[in-house]
Structure formats: structure tokens, C-alpha cells
Amino acid sequence: MPDPADLLGWLSGDAVDDLDLRAAKIRLLCTDIDGVLTTGALLYGKEPGHTKAFHVRDGAAIKWLQRSGIPVAFISGLASDATVNRARDLGVEDCFAGHLDKGPVLDQLCAKYGLALDQIAHLGDDLPDLPLLRRVGLACCPADAVAEVRAACHWVTPVEGGRGVLRLVAERILKAQNRWNAILSTYEVRP
User: Fold this and answer.
1) Which CATH architecture is the domain 4-186 placed in?
2) Per-residue pLDDT tens digits for 48-89
3) Between 81-90 and 56-67, two packed helices, what is the crossing angle to 10 degrees?
4) Mean pLDDT across the stretch 31-39?
5) Cα dist from 56 to 75, 118, 155, 163, 164, whole Å
6) 125, exposed or middle or buried, with CB in 10 Å at 0-12, 13-18, 19+?
7) Do the Cβ atoms of 159 and 172 come closer than 8 Å?
8) Hey, where are the domains in the chain?
9) pTM, to two decimals
10) What angle do CA 168, 15, 175 make, to 5 degrees?
11) 188/145 Cα distance (integer angstroms)
12) pLDDT band for position 13 (50/70/90)?
């Protein structure tokens, strides 16, 4: 995967500075699931229900954020056992699956963690995410998000949903907070 700093090269210096300032404040990362952590494809078979494919890099990034004291919350309009299972596997305590009206969930999370809206990032890709994206301090989306979402975001990542979007956003946040080198050192990488 390319270095996210290289991927920001198309932004002006002011835009990069604004993105870093926003990322430095983040204390909670919220994310939609379908179309963000997955491609949005739902696989159906003979049995009731569906399956989803999650990108492993996003899972690693969630663990890095958690270890750095930044919880992650799943907020999805689709009620799905696959989402609940992924949240459990990653230790994501705040999993809201089946919540089309995401605003009250954001308010609940603000109260739970004692956070202001500018301390929250959200990743979304479609219209149900717009109310959150317009309220949070750092609004991000995958490259293939709908036009209205892309227009509302502070950062449109260069990758599509299900291809490591959260990984890029997590790295940007951790770098802005001077926590990235600690992550690298766990893998014996010298900055």
C-alpha cells in the first residue's frame, strides 16, 4: 500500500495542514460498514442471511487505534450478523447494526465518551452517512462514495470501499497525533 502522505500530494499545502489539524483532535473513529469496510457486496446462498468480506488491513488499523486510546464504533444501517461478528473479533465495543438514523447514535457516543463533535471522525459512503459527516470534526470517505458524500468530506481517500479505507484514515490520525512511530516500532520498523 502506498504511503498515505504520498496520496495527499494532490492536495494543496493548506488542505493538508487542515486535514492534519483535524486528525490531531480525533478521540473516536466511527465508521459505516457496507461500502466502507466492505465493497458493499452482499453474498447470499441457500441459507438465510448473507456474508461479507472485510479487509484485513482495516482490522489491523482498528487494533492500532484501540491500543493508542482511540476507540472505534461501527454504525451501520444494515442489521447483520457478519458486522456483529467482525466487531466482536476486533474488540469493537460500540457496534450499532441496523441503525438507519445514525444521528442519535452519534449523540449517544458523544455522551458516552464525553467528546465534542470536533473530536470525532466518521467514514461513510452513502446518503445515510451525510448527517454524521456534516457534524464531525473529520469526515472521510472512500473514492467510490456517492457524489454528495464526496462533496461533504474533508478527505476523499484514494482507495475504494473494502480496499483498506480505514487503514489510510487511521494512519493519518496516528501520524497527526505523533503516535505512528510507536506503531512502527512494534514491527521493528525505524522511522
Assistant:
1) 3-Layer(aba) Sandwich (3.40)
2) 778 898 999 999 999 999 999 999 999 999 999 999 999 999
3) 50
4) 96
5) 19, 28, 22, 9, 8
6) buried
7) no
8) 4-186
9) 0.89
10) 40
11) 35
12) low
